Hints:
Blueprint: H1 3-14, H2 43-47, H3 96-104, H4 114-126, H5 137-143, E1 168-170, E2 176-180, E3 185-192, E4 203-209, E5 216-221, E6 225-227, E7 236-241, H6 244-247, E8 259-264, E9 272-278, H7 321-350, H8 354-359, H9 361-395, H10 403-434, H11 439-473
Parallel strand pairs: 2-9
Antiparallel strand pairs: 1-3, 2-3, 3-7, 4-5, 4-8, 6-7, 8-9
Helix pairs in contact: 7-9, 7-11, 9-10, 10-11
Amino acid sequence: MADNEQDLWVQATFGVHPAQYQPVDAQAGASQNGATQDGTPNDAASSAPAPPAVSSAPAPPAASSASAPPARPAFSPPPQSRQPTLRPGDQSPDGWVEYMQELLKIPVTGTYDRATEKAVRAFQAANGCQVDGVVGNQTWSVLRHEKKESVGTDGRNKHSFEEKGAEARFFTEDKWVIYQKSDDSVAFTIVSVGDSDDIASHKATFRITPPGGQGQVVELPIGPATEKSPDGQGNRHSITITGLKANYPPEPGAPGLYHIEAYLDAELGGDRWSGDVRDKAPVAPPQQVPAKPKEHIPPEHPLQQEEPTRPTKPTTPPPQVDTLIGLIKGLIGIATQIVKEWIGLQTSLAKCTATLMWACKGEAFNAGKAMVSVIGDVKNIITLLTEDVAGVETAGVTDIATIPLTIKAVYETITDIQEAISTTQTMISCMQNSVGDDEDAKAAVAAMSAHLNNITNLVGSLRSQVGRIAALIGV
């Protein structure tokens, strides 16, 4: 073939024009002593004269050894990690609470506070989820527009999880993405949920299937944050597939929609997305409630007559504001005293000798964790009760709707306190059996036992007080 045709053939096959090649020495693979570069004998080199040097443009290979096309990235989704369970009081350096607040469309604070709990409970009630303020498997699935899951949690201790390093999710799992005709593109939003927002160095893998065509795989970098949250966690990033129809054209006349599958790196949790490309968001059809069929009753039947007016159930009169405020403030006082007793118990534990702590290290470790957790729970209850008092004092009986939620939270906290009491009592019993003759250690163990007895009595008072409030407001 002509030189220019050969050049074009080489460029099409190897992706480079021959002019870019440097002269190649045919003896480059052999050393001066007749051996190849890997050290194996080269019989041809030792027994035959060297062939002449070749020209700078390599000859085309034989048809039987034609070069293979460049390898495309594989589409191999890694295992997916799960979302952590979030509860009132959660506040950590990662971006999970921020992500949840973004999905709820409420102010992003990074703290699972009272306003967030109210929004969560309202969302759960509106979407047929278990209304408990706990964002577990079921609530997460509905928030992220996934298939609704059954009720469940991640099994971790409350307020104990923190997402270390980089982690990310597709913002929602909607089964569609909007096509931007102006620039022939589709865009995806990625949210960072780890304690590090360094996800720009990672990538997402997409498989794009045009109508009537085969799926083609492309890897795209995530890039820097495009929307930052107020506290710098839960930032949003954007990935855009440009030239969708130009680069991945459909088969002529083929019906249907573009379909895209995607996943994130395993280091980011391996989150997946799958859906169609649409010109606009699909409108969900309104739910049709089938009308109850009317029972056929002959005209002469006595039930055809007009039904008499039934007496209505008397409504419960609103509670007296002063009484309600007094009971809630009393509950705050009891809860505050419980926190003080737990802190006093922690102080006494710190006075124990190293020998005693080592003898009961397992029990002390479990009790220490339980103390930290329950102190945080009770402090959260105090905050909720204080907000309830402020609401009632400001708006009177018109703002008691949140109190039943707080009462439920108090009952749940009482259960947690009782579990912490049991764990701490196990530690104290171990120390009582191991204390020996050390008077200071004996005094510390005795002080812990006294604090625990006080806490037990205060829990009884807490239960009685919350019962009075529940009876007053009729829950």
